[in-house]
Structure formats: structure tokens, C-alpha cells
Amino acid sequence: MLSETIKQRLAERFAAPLPEFHKRRIVFWRDEDGEFADAIDELDLPGVSIVKLTGRNNFAIKKLLSSDDLTGDYLVYDPLAYEKDGRDDWLLDIKLYSEEFRADLVSLQMEELSVEPSPAMRKTMKLYAKFLDNKDRKAKLRRIGRTYQTPLQLHIDIMAVLCGINGGSAQDVIIAVLTAGMEKENNTALTAIEKFGNIDAFWQLVQRYTGYTNADDRPLSDLAAHILITALSQTLPASALRGLERFISDPCKAYCYQLVHEWQRGDRSDGLIEICRSVEHELHLADRFDKTEINILLKSDTFPAIDESILKRFFTEIGENVIRAEDIIVAVKNRRTATWYALTEDYMESLYYIARMREFYLAHIDGFHIVEPAKIWKLYTTDAYEMDSHYRHFHYRFGRTLKYPNSILEDALKKCSDVVEGLYCEWFLKELTSAWTKAIADDLDSLGYVSEINEQRRFYSRYVSPNVSKGNRVFVIISDALRYEVAAELSEALNHNTRGKATLEAMQATFPGITKFGMAALLPGKEVSVNNKMDVLVDGNPTVSTAQRGVILSDANPDSIAVTYKGLLQMKKQERRDLITGKEIIYIYHNAIDAAGDKAPTETKVFEACNDAIDELTAIVKIIVNDLSGTNILITSDHGFLYTYKPLEESQKISRQAFNGDILELGRRYALVSPETIADYLLPVKTDRTIGGTPMKGYAPEDTVRIKVQGGGENYVHGGISLQEMVVPVIVYKGMRASYKNYVEVQNPGLLLISESRKVSNLMFSLDFLQKQPVGDKVQPCSYSLHFINDEGVPVSDFQTVIADRASNNASDRVFHVRFTLKQMKYDRNKIYRLVIANDTDVPEEIEFRIDIAFADDFGFDL
Fold first, then answer.
1. Short-list 378, 449, 459, 389, CA closest to 732
2. 813 phi/psi in degrees, rounded to 5
3. What is the pLDDT of residues 443-494, one digit of tens each?
4. 12: Cβ–Cβ under 8 A, 6 or more apart, which residues?
5. What's phi and psi for 643, nearest 5 deg?
6. Per residue in 798-849, pLDDT tens?
7. Main-chain dihedrals φ then ψ at residue 693, nearest 5 degrees
8. Residue 731 in contact with residue 494, Cβ under 8 Å?
9. C-alpha dihedral sign at 826, 832, 836, 842
């Protein structure tokens, strides 16, 4: 008996408007299983003739439809089965311009799921009767929104639903299964495929794509190892993988490489890390990598152990005082774009800065044999400060490894830190500071400062007053302990990240270089003195608090104000504007570095505080320029600082007993004493300050020696006469708007494809790219993502990264050789594919390519 639903569907089919150029409707009801052979006789469709094919009347029906009646509507019931090519079907030509109808459950499901009504697709649908018996599973498959014309994609999408993913490709299914666990019986995705899908289809899919042959006694870890090692063989030579041939399928190298690459980039990469670690352990890959040349390992990033092997060997060499700086820098730059870089980033960057310190050492291997203070000053402010920067960056990264240690690398890097201390403390600080103190000793004794070098005490008259006299509003940001090398990095950041121009200058700190004297030196006034409590006064006015400094500023210029960074930051935009209305001079006091360094519990975090200071000062400059329309900004400091990772030994400290006379104030790097006091092993420093009308005298340790004082804190010190303490930065920042004549927008360097061919004929190929401009003040480093897409915007290759950060003016030094791997799939030589060059800010560039690779993507799927 026919259901009312079938009757209604047939009635609707014949009532529908005819297709264009058709004068009647012929519908073939296909029913190979003969489910409705008896019920067809009871069907009545007004205006429609119903005929049945029996296998003996085919010619008669053909004659009826093609000759005897050319106007009537017909429903032709066809329960017959034909050969695949239809050679035995007498009515095939009529069927080609007629319509088809099916009423069996599979047919209804095929129509519902947009499955092509072909014998091959019906066969595939019947495999999944249990899957299709569930409304939720069927709804999830329908939501994928695909039209199925071949069995392969239907197999894949049904497996995808059972794995809990929204469609995709074979590699997505394989990844989902492997991520679900290495034990077959406890793998929820594999269990679902076996229970509601077709497990034979899954393993056939795996074999066709990856070359892996399953067996009941083979664990999933074998599949994982097979895929990973086959992927690894795409980038490593066979000689490096000797003994692992059983895990490698040569025809499937490109596919496995692409699968692993997509897995690494996807949201299931955490699961991949565990699997990689397991395979590394089972196959002893770390030992294998350790015996492979580093330049070969640099071509691959399949396993995290590759990065660890590279690091371990460089660290071992460094521990033996062998530092191959050039090779290290090449290796680190290579790994920055590698998949597992984040796992060992701090170790990798620690290695990088060791190499940079070694480079500096080799460039100055003869030492610092200069006797003129001005020349040593210039050497430091143009070149030598970078050694302080490398040391800071090394210890920042090294400190992070102590928080997040890697058991394989931890001890090796700690041994390297001893080498770093030798380079920095025993060579750089010792040599440079010795030359500097000898050069300035006479000036300090007779003048109290170094002649021919700009003095901090003249900051206001040299920088502030001239700006105000020109009618400019001036913002002065004073960051406590912002030493010169940190300011150099800040200056670079301002040039790269803001619309202004930052110029870095320097001045010598007043002695002693501590907060109360440095802050006073930056204020206007004629006389600096000290009261009985050792508080610093300017023209008799106290200078301890921000409010007291504001009074001194207002005395010199009534249109002045002093505010703290935190206070300004907490204000609303309008409150900030109201605050500076009518003001010509705005002093802003910031304290991040000294706040950390001056306290024993936090002094080891001072390099973290330097990074914070750069971020905070950049932010406040943006607020001044964007919210307060400020264009003239000065950024300076009260003093620098000296930091060494390891505290000095007792033999390197000077005790209080070295002084003979009254000590007024004692710090680790300075002493203020009465005029008649003398001291052994210290340099005398003349001061023009008085205490209660009585002159004072100063003393400073030579080199990096500390004076013994009570309390903690020995790594971070200031107040002395080393260049790190005395060189105070002055960043002269000019904010610009787009309307300014000399305005230059911050820009990316640009990346240009310079390979000429626009045709790809292999799954793996390389292209050359040119970084258009060298990195400089207004050209910032930029990370570019490169990949190929089809005409629908779907990626068809792996993603490669180019970090365009090269500063060379020689164009050949800015060429990148990039290797791509296309996905193993069918490509249409007549279609356009595009190379996408993208970054985080610019509009992506797309370059047209043709891909001509002979390849079929159905793999002759049998089910």
C-alpha cells in the first residue's frame, strides 16, 4: 500500500511548472528492489498515464513515449536493474531528458541530504543505515551543507560527524581519531565510527591517504608514528632516518607532511604535542637528532625534540667556551618561524643573546684603550650600550626559563649563564669601566663632573626653557632608573609604533646618581643643597614629593604642573585635558624600574620592569599625542643603574672601615662625607653641595665594586660612576600629525615575490621573496603569512611565515627563500589559484598562479 506521503510527492511533482522548452512531463520511478511493484496498480494520478516496465515491454514503452504519444504526461515505474554504463537500457535516451523519482527510504534520505541519485551513491548510503537512523546525526550531516556526487566525501563527512567535527577532509578525520587517544578500545571517535559508521571505510581511507596498513594487533600509536615519520621524511634525508623505513610511505610523504602541518596549526595541536613526545620516546628520536647535523635539522620542525637537540648542542659548546655566533643567529632566526618555537622560545632567545654578546666581544676583542672621556662616552652611547641590552635580554629570557624549566635544557643553560657572566662582568664591565674611571678621575676630583659632556643639572635650561620660549607646550616624562640602553629600545619603539620622531641624546648624571639628587637636578633653580636629614633642596625648597617639585616648577614658570604617571593614567580624558589647560610645562613622574630594583625581594625582576617601563612609556606618549594634542615631549631619567646577576664576593666589597672620618650618607656605590674624611680604594668626587652651610665631599668605588652596607639588595645598584649609572638618556620626541610637512607614517617593509614563474608543477616547490625596504626608524619589522588558495578562497597549501626584520641596505641580503607544500588533491590546470601575502595590518596581496599537477583525489575508493 502506498503511503499518502508518496502519493502527495508524486502529485506535487506533476503539478509543478514544466522546465523551459518542455511540453510535457515524464517521470521514471526507480525501484530496483521492487518494493512498490504491487502497490503501483492502486495509484491514481489525474491526467497522468502510468505504465510499468517488465523487462519484456521496454521496446513497446519506448515506442509509446517517443512516437505514439508525444504530448501526454507519464509516470514510468521501473523496477529493473541495468549495467553500470546503461548499455542494456532501451529507454536511456528518454531518461536523459526526463525526471527521476524514488520512494524507498534510502532514496528519501539521499534527496534529503543532497546526495546524487547514482548507483554508487545508493550503495554508499546503504552502508550507513545505522548512522542515518538517528535524527541528530543526520541533522549534523545536513548542516555541513555539502552536495555529494562521489562516495569519498560522503564517507569523510559521516566519519567527521561521528568524530565530533563539522565536516572537513580526510586529514581532519584522521587527526580527530588520533587526538581521541592511542588505545583503540578507549578511543571514542574510533568506537563511534565502528558502531555507527563503517570501520573498514575508515581504515581504507587511512591506507589510501597515508600508506598505513591496519591490523587488529596494531595500536593507534603505530599509525601516529607512521604519519609523523613519513612527514619527517619529506624534509630530512634518508640517511638521517635509517632504520625507520617501516614507518615511511614514500608515495604519501607530501600528504603526511601536509596533515602534520595542518595539525600543528589547528586547535588540536595540544594533543599532537603529547603524541610527538610519545613517538620521540618510543623511537629514541632525540638520540637520532643529536647525531644529525644542525643545518639538516633546520629544514624540519615535525618534532619538538628537533629544537631541543639544536639548543642542547649549542649550549654544550658554549659551556666549553665555544660560541659559534653566526651559526647560532642563523639557527635562531630559522626556528622563530618553526611550529614548536613557543615550547622553547625563552631558551632559543637566551641562545640568541649569548651570540649577540659574542659578536660584540669579537668586534672589540682588543679592549677599550681610550683615554679621552668624550670618546669613551661616544663609544658607549653609539655602540657599547648594546652589550648592556644583550645582557638584559639574556637574563630576562633566562629568568623565564627558571619559571618554566625544560628538564633537558635547564642545566645546560645554567652553565651557559656562567659564560655570560664572564663575558659581561669579567670582560665588558671590567675593561670598559676601568678605562672610563681612569679617564674621568681627575675631572671628578677637581670639578665633580666630566668636562665636555652635557650635564644633567642643565637639563631644564637646555631642553625645557628653549621650547617654552618658542611658544611650545612641553611634556617632560621622568622615568626613575630608565638607563640609556632601555631608553634606546624605547626610542626605537616610539619610532616604529607612533606617528612621531624620537631622537636619543644623553647627559651625565649628577653625583651621586640616586633618586633624590637626580630628580632635583632636573628641576629649575640655582642652588642644590642638603639639610640635616639629608633631604635635597633646590633654592631652599624641598624636592621629595611630586607636589613639592611642582612648587619649584611653578616658581620658575607659573604655567607649570607636576603629576604622577599613575595619577594621569587614572584620569578620564576630559580630566586630563582640564589638568593641562593653560599649562606650558607638564612634568610627569613614572616609576617602574627603580620600584622593582630598589627592593631586595624584587630586584631580580628589574629586567622585567624594564619591559614594563617601555610599554608604559609608549602608552603615555600615545595619550599625550592623541588625547592631549602634545607634540613636544622629553623623556629622561634621574639616574641609570648597574645590574649583575651574581652578587659580588666579599673580597670585591669595600667595608666601612675604609673611611677615616665622618660619613654623612653611605650607599653601595657612593659615599657622602665631611670635607676632612678620607677613604682608601675609592675615587674622590668634588661636590658643590652643602649641608647646613658646610661643604660635602663624595667618594665612589672604582670598577663595579660595592661598598658594604646593611640590608639586602646587591645585584641592582646605582649612585656610582660607571657608564651604566652615569649616562642618563634624553629622548627628544616630536609628535606629528598627517598634515605636517615632514610627516612620515610608520610602515611595514613590504614583501615582493621576485620569482618569475607563475606556474606550479610539483607538490613541493620554492619561491623567492624580497623584503622591499630595510627596517629603520619608520619601517618596522613585520611578520608575513604566505599560502595558496583556490578560486573559493580555500587554502590549498601549507602556511609559511617570513619575518621581515632585516636592516641591510643591500637588497640581496633581504631575499627570503620559501618552500611550499601543496595539499594532495586534484588541481584544475584551467583554474586560477592565488598566492596570498598577508600581515596583521595591510590589505592582503593576491598573486595569480596556475597549478598543473596530474593527480586524482578519490584514490579509487572501493566502498
1. 459
2. -80, -10
3. 999 999 999 999 999 999 999 999 999 999 999 999 999 999 999 999 999 9
4. none
5. -135, 130
6. 999 999 999 899 998 999 999 999 988 889 999 999 999 999 888 999 999 9
7. 85, -10
8. yes
9. negative
Pick the closest to residue 840 from 772, 786, 784 (CA basis). 784
Q: CA 471 to CA 826: how far, in whole Å?
A: 70
Burial of 308 (0-12, 13-18, 19+ CB in 10 A): buried
The grid cell for 476 is: 617632560
* Amino acid at position 379, single letter: L
Strand ranges of the sheet holding 26-30, from the earlier edge strand across to the other edge: 48-52, 73-78, 26-30, 99-101
Please say whether the beta carbons of 75 and 29 come within 8 A: yes
Within 118-219, residue ranges assigned H as helices are 119-127, 129-132, 135-144, 151-162, 170-179, 188-196, 199-210
Residue 648 has pLDDT above 90, yes or no: no
**DSSP summary character for residue 561:** E
Strands 560-564 and 585-590, by their bridges, are: parallel
Beta strands in 499-611 (DSSP E): 501-508, 528-530, 536-538, 541-542, 560-564, 585-590
Distance CA 541, CA 528 (A): 9
**Grid cell for residue 715:** 645585584
Look at residues 296, 316, 394, 301 and name the one whose alpha carbon lies nearest to residue 352. 394
Q: How far apart, in Å, are the Cα atoms of 840 and each of 571, 670, 761, 782? A: 31, 49, 30, 9
